[in-house]
Amino acid sequence: MHWKQSSDTDLPEDSGSQSNASPTATPGMKVVSTLYLNPQKSRSMDNIRLILFFTLAFLGLMLYQAWQQDYGIPAQTASQQQGATPSQQTNGGQETGGVPNVEVMAPAQSGAVPGAGDQGVSGQAGQVINVETDLLKLEISTKGGTVSRAFLIDYPVSLDRPDRKVELLSPNVPDLYIAQSGLIGSAKGKAPTHEEIYQSESSSYTLSDGVDQIEIPLVWQSGDGVTVTKTFTLKRGSYLIEVRHQIDNQSSDNLAVRDYGQLQRMEPQDDSSGFTTYTYTGGVYYNPTDKYEKIDFEDMAKKSLSVESDTGWLAMIEHYFLSAWVPPKEQVDHYYTNALPGSKYLIGSYSPTVTIEPGSQQELKRQLYIGPKLQDELEVIAEGLELSVDYGWLTVLAKPIFWLLKTIHDFVGNWGWAIIILTLLIKAAFYKLSETSYKSMANMRKFTPRMQALKDRYGDDKTRLNQAMMEMYKKEKINPLGGCLPILVQIPVFIALYWVLLESVELRQAPWILWIDSLSEKDPYFILPLIMGVSMFVQQKLNPAPPDPMQAKIMMSLPFVFTVFFAFFPAGLVLYWVVNNLVSILQQWYITRKIEQQAG
């Protein structure tokens, strides 16, 4: 990948165009034999389950910290107030940075375009055009046709304030976040950048009942016969906006132009309250070569992206939502980033040069997505766009989990019941492995009195105690590691499901039953975490106690520790863990009872 040093213009200069096998009896015997030959190493066997529990606890702490970042209540800013008036905004988008400074012709033929301090042809700030569909409420400035504000009608900020909608785009500092587009001409004034002033026939457009789409036309004219009509097309039931530049060249000269689309935003203020941040906010782009690449604000400040590719897209993403520019599929666009003064950052792309002869017309278009990360819809819009739902390094596991969860939801119509059914299916899939593990633990429990007798016999002589225990394991064909397998299997599933519940906007504010009105937020009365803690305590009682009293005390404290962790987890994740524990208890009780009856 080739990078260029960043500058204070909107665009860079144009470049010219582990193994997962489960332990069986045989491997188990090998482990015992090895430990028998090395008595000092056998001490670690008693600690394996304890280490696994602490590993899970550590993962829980990290997940809790990420949850705090994602669900902590940030300080409200001016941009979060839906009732803001145009007079409270930043002068219709004047604080939007500069204009592309790209040479679309040979240096001798090209002309400069307005710089960062230019406020447009007439110095006007532009007027606001209000647009409303069934899903979006937008404000488009006649200055450049910039989409300066966007509300998502179906997504309230909180359940307590259903009338207050998520504001994804905003013209206000310090939450500036806008979508800009325009044309780069062969000379100044030959084509409208996002700094030029358009004319509009109306200041308000609404998608009426019975109408499937609306168009918002903006018109710009040069002084020598060039007319550009910039049209926004919005359709019912869609967050995708088509942006077309219709160029009519009635001048006496050839007109060379490129169209571009870029997203500009300020880096969000840190409201993490000291907790570790996971959910990514920043720029991303996709192409067949680099696939899904993140470019955070720090990267933009250090160096500018300069990549050419077809079949790609670019976006600014955050927790549940994104805005993205999608060029035509086979069009080779030049992708760039830049850092502007005032902590403003750009990611965008521009098309190849198109030459329009006198008396001719040309249409250039691209698509703008403003909305939630709905994976099914994003997958249809552009290749790889669904990857903006960031499941991290467990994407390969999280995506099928989400697909299965969504399929179940399509039948039952409730995400809570879907989580319960998914848990039962996961337990059924791993039943044989769980059965082997529970049998191992039941056998260990059966030999607990003999282990205690050995401990009483050898006292503090750890070496002889471990040798005697290894001899007993070998004689009775017990694999002491077998009981740890359910934990090893559940850890990746647990983490993958966590990211599914955390990152999937489909589960945002989704209710279950009774007091659980949002599965993506913590249980307001901590009932599920308490049930989870009790179920974990019962599981501890079904397992053989560690021979070391200190280890036994630590193990018995873990249900309390996990209850505290899970008290602040999304209710959907706690629901999964509760059902998982309850089913595990039933399975373990049944298998243990069966073994005891056979022994009797």
List descriptors.
elongated, seven-stranded antiparallel beta sheet, single chain, alpha+beta, 600 residues, 20 strands, Beta-galactosidase, Chain A, domain 5, 24% strand
Summarize the topology:
Layout: E1 3-4, H1 25-37, H2 43-71, E2 128-132, E3 136-141, E4 146-158, E5 161-169, E6 177-185, E7 204-206, E8 213-221, E9 226-235, E10 240-249, E11 255-266, E12 282-287, E13 291-295, H3 297-302, E14 304-309, E15 313-317, E16 321-326, E17 333-340, E18 344-350, E19 354-356, E20 360-372, H4 375-381, H5 395-412, H6 415-429, H7 431-446, H8 448-458, H9 462-476, H10 485-503, H11 527-542, H12 549-566, H13 571-599
Parallel strand pairs: 2-7
Antiparallel strand pairs: 1-14, 2-3, 3-4, 4-5, 6-11, 8-9, 9-10, 10-20, 11-18, 11-19, 12-13, 12-15, 14-17, 15-16, 16-20, 17-18
Summarize the structure.
The protein is elongated. The chain folds into 2 domains: 48-70 and 397-442 and 480-599, no CATH class; 123-268 and 280-390, Distorted Sandwich (Beta-galactosidase, Chain A, domain 5).
